[in-house]
Design goal:
There is one protein chain. The chain has 253 residues and is of the alpha/beta class. It has helices spanning 5-14, 38-46, 61-65, 80-90, 126-132, 150-157, 162-165, 170-179, 199-208, 222-235, and strands spanning 29-31, 51-54, 72-77, 95-99, 113-119, 133-144, 182-196, 238-251. Strands 1-7-8-6-5-2-3-4 form an eight-stranded mixed β-sheet, sandwiched between helices. Strand 5, helix 5 (126-132) and strand 6 form a beta-alpha-beta unit. The longest helix has 14 residues, at 222-235. The chain is globular and about 60 Å long. It starts with a helix and ends with a strand.
Length: 253
């Protein structure tokens, strides 16, 4: 039975958005995955080091699922519900979770980690990454690229200026790494198809990924949500495109 707009809204507006697990969207939205397989590649790197720091770990799901952790493992996170979630998940695996405001400095000494990783960081403080990396150490990260899911963003906010659409460009990441004294040894970029099959999926996504439509609430955007719901009902899934890039940078030995 087709669920009504009000039912879909009520469900998506109240479900928990803690952590970085998107399983609630199973059957309601699809996202093409990058071809490189970040978690698998991270697992390969974890097997070669004795220390790792996962910056902006979210709920810790990506690090926990990458494979056995090295003897020294730490993660940082700023959002209190995610700190609690990551602690419950990562402590049994031997990793300490540190509440951190995602601003310099990182709460660790110079050269503390052979590997620093981060999946979809909001901000990258390149000088701090370089500082906590041990000589010969590696920064390994999958990041959101420019104009990601902007079909959805611009549906709510209208056309965005070129400067906004260009934010998070991989060339800027390369420049930031280089300024911090790191050598970029791998860079890959892809645009990937994403489909939202009902308005509940849209609401959940925008509540969870809060920087896409800043200040998003159902009340403020109810008319646009109703319009999008009707569009999905008549035309099928709303299609957008995510932008992802992989960057690996190394500190000189």
């Amino acid at each position: 039975m087709t669920r009504t707009f009000d039912h879909l809204v009520a469900e998506a507006e109240t479900v928990s958005v803690d952590g970085w697990d998107f399983s609630w969207l199973d059957g309601r939205a699809t996202e093409q995955r990058p071809s490189w397989g970040y978690q698998r590649m991270l697992g390969e790197r974890l097997a070669r080091v004795r220390s790792v720091l996962d910056v902006q770990t979210g709920g810790g799901e990506v690090l926990a699922g990458a494979g056995p952790l090295p003897p020294l493992a730490a993660a940082t996170e700023s959002w209190p519900p995610n700190v609690d979630r990551a602690t419950r998940l990562l402590h049994p695996l031997g990793a300490v979770v540190v509440a951190d405001p995602d601003e310099p400095p990182l709460p660790f000494g110079d050269g503390a980690f052979e590997l620093v990783c981060s999946r979809h960081p909001v901000t990258v403080w390149w000088d701090e990454i370089a500082r906590v990396l041990a000589p010969g150490g590696t920064y390994f990260s999958q990041q959101v690229g420019p104009a990601s899911v902007f079909e959805l963003v611009e549906f709510f906010l209208g056309p965005q200026p070129d400067g906004v659409r260009r934010r998070r460009h991989p060339d800027d990441a390369v420049a930031g790494a280089s300024r911090a004294g790191l050598e970029v040894v791998d860079l890959r970029s892809e645009r990937l198809r994403t489909e939202f099959h009902d308005i509940g999926a849209v609401i959940y996504f925008l509540r969870k990924v809060v920087w896409m439509v800043p200040g998003f609430t159902v009340g403020h955007y109810r008319e646009r949500l109703q319009e999008l719901h009707e569009r999905i009902e008549h035309e099928g899934p709303f299609v957008a495109h995510t932008s992802r890039f992989l960057i690996e940078a190394r500190r000189a030995g």
